[in-house]
From TrEMBL:
This is D-alanine--D-alanine ligase. NCBIfam families: D_ala_D_alaTIGR, PRK01372.1. It comes from Sediminicurvatus halobius. Mg(2+) 2 binds at residues 271, 273. Belongs to the D-alanine--D-alanine ligase family. Cell wall formation. Its cofactor is Mg(2+); Mn(2+). Binds 2 magnesium or manganese ions per subunit. The gene is ddl. PANTHER family: D-ALANINE--D-ALANINE LIGASE (PTHR23132), D-ALANINE--D-ALANINE LIGASE B (PTHR23132:SF23). GO terms for cellular component: cytosol.
Length: 312
């Protein structure tokens, strides 16, 4: 929930920019946090780097609010949000519930299905012996993903039955639960959400087989197409779907919704990122620029969404 009054920079007080942590996404989090820290300091905010992997969480009680740039487990899954709630420190982004569901691809899909929002069918095979049944049910090609991981870590596209077990085992290195869903053949889009507003959609064109970790953070060949090429009515419908998906899981503040569009023009929800990347290769800053917001304006808007403990 955005604060009712627009505070001055001084009123923000001492701000901890949380980055790093102990998840598999630590290197990206440090980059995101560094970009956010520099932008906040350029605005005159009394912002400081805070790495929960290197400092006791109790020290956060000395800050007036927290800007969370932690990706993955411990930062994006409701854990740090719960700690900040207990300490009474306002923080950016989704609360405990929205963060926990957003990090969990399976539970997000179950919520969307319950509300009639379109998302691909899925299976969660508990053993290697169940994999042939998955192919029988879903066909090929498939995507195999850890249920609770980000940045496409542990995610594999499978085009033939022989590769499914290897992909399943690779995903299990990140999570005991593995999600398998059909590969939606078509165009990939992402919609950034900022304080209840859908920013301009981006069409993603990756050089590889899909928008994987390298395409997200390393490749110079990945294209972020803005305007995305959709008709105005289609982009509006995509924005409405993204906001509905974001709200459905209890997310708030800011984030990003990833969607595929099939050959028939239907949109399919993939996942929500409640703390997306904020590096120079990241999608949310690109969408914000298309709306006329530079990095400083973007982080300021995010900071203004700081939620007070107990807001749900």
């Amino acid at each position: 929930m955005t604060e009712s009054r627009t505070p001055t920079v001084a009123a923000m007080g001492r701000v901890a920019v949380l980055a790093g942590g102990g998840s598999a996404e630590r290197p990206i989090s440090l980059k995101s946090g560094g970009e956010c820290l520099r932008a906040l300091q350029a605005l005159g905010v009394a912002a400081e780097h805070f790495d929960p992997a290197e400092r006791p969480l109790a020290e956060l009680a000395g800050f007036d609010r927290a800007f969370i740039a932690l990706h993955g487990r411990g930062g994006e899954d409701g854990v740090i949000q719960g700690a900040l709630e207990a300490l009474g420190v306002p923080y950016t982004g989704s609360g405990v519930l929205g963060s926990a569901i957003g990090m969990d691809k399976l539970r997000s899909k179950l919520v969307w299905k319950g509300l009639g929002l379109s998302t691909p069918e899925h299976r969660v095979p508990a053993s290697a012996e169940a994999l042939p049944e998955v192919i029988d049910a879903l066909g090929l090609p498939l995507f195999v993903k850890p249920v609770r991981e980000g940045s496409s870590l542990g995610t594999t596209r499978v085009d033939d039955a022989a590769a499914l077990r290897t992909a399943w085992e690779a995903a299990r290195r990140y999570d005991a639960e593995v999600l398998v869903e059909p590969c939606v053949v078509g165009e990939e889009y992402t919609v950034a959400v900022l304080d209840g507003e859908a920013l301009p959609a981006i069409r993603i064109e990756a050089e590889g087989r899909f928008y994987d970790f390298e395409a997200k953070y390393q490749s110079e060949a990945t294209r972020m197409v803005i305007p995305c090429g959709l008709a105005a009515s289609e982009e509006a419908a995509l924005g409405e779907l993204a906001l509905a998906a974001f709200d459905a899981i209890g997310a708030s503040g800011w984030g990003r919704v990833d969607v595929m569009r099939d050959g028939a023009g239907r949109f399919w929800l993939l996942e929500v990122n409640t703390i997306p990347g904020m590096t120079d290769h990241s999608l949310v800053p690109a969408a914000a620029r298309a709306r006329g917001l530079d990095m400083a304006a973007l982080v300021w808007r995010i900071l203004l969404t700081s939620r007070r403990p107990g807001e749900g």
